[in-house]
Amino acid sequence: QVQVVESGGGLVQPGGSLKLSCLASGFIFSSYDMAWYRQAPGKEREWVATIGSNIRVKRYSDSVKGRFTISRDNQQKTVYLEMNNLNVEDTAVYYCQARYPTSSYSVWGQGTQVTVSS
Question: Within 10 Å of residue 107's Cβ, how many Cβ atoms?
Answer without folding.
Answer: 18
